[in-house]
Amino acid sequence: MAKLIDGKAISVQIKDECREKVAQMKAEGVEVTLAVIQVGNDPASTVYVGNKKKACEYIGIRSLAYELPEDTTEEKLLELIGELNARKDVNGILVQLPLPKHINEEKVLDAIHPSKDVDGFHPQNVGALCIGKPGFVSCTPAGIIQLLKRSGIEIAGKECVVIGRSNIVGKPMALLLLRENGTVTVTHSRTKDLKEVTRRADILVVAIGKPKMITADYVKEGAVVIDVGIHRNENNKLCGDVDFESVEPHCSAITPVPGGVGPMTIAMLMNNCVESVALQK
Q1: Structural domain count, the chain
Q2: What is the CATH classification number for the domain harbouring 104?
Q3: What are phi and psi of 188, to 5 degrees?
């Protein structure tokens, strides 16, 4: 039986640690503030934004919500970001993705000041991660490192394989594992003999975006498997990129979907908001 890595429990630990730090800051007269911008009313985005607001409330972070209509121009959105960048009382700025088609996502994310980019998407923060300088780290990969560490899983010297090379998960994940002294291979849609590569992994991180694609024959006996995917199957039940039923008997540890990586993303966002105060100093 594989050990189930409980993202819900670990995310609560992190949120409680943040809560303590925020209470301490408040006692010293410092308030942490996160501005969340949502353009349009994509239902999934609305749920995510709601969860972020709840987390802020729990931790004691003040949240400012900007709910803009679908037809908001790129210019208007950039103007708002400019105003928030200039405000001394705003520590973090988050633009909920996806944005409507007429708005250039890259341009918008690049407009957020790196010291307020709590999502860790700004090129300056990504560059800082590459060369080991301080900066914000993308929340999902940062959360995965915490899942491994807080579950007592050693990364140093381990063979780590990441499936997927997205800017939000795959690439920063590889850099973070490298920072923890893992030996890292990144695989993607052009990788030849994918199974052969993934079967070498002591730690396998799957961020491929295809439901249940990774089955037992991709996994080395006793590996640790981290499933970043989230989908709805034919019965409308949540599932990941990993076929949990077939893979679980072969692992030493595995994250479930839901309740694995998902809760960690918001916990690490809250952690970034708390860290923002020190970074801005």
Answers
A1: 2
A2: 3.40.50.10860
A3: -160, -170
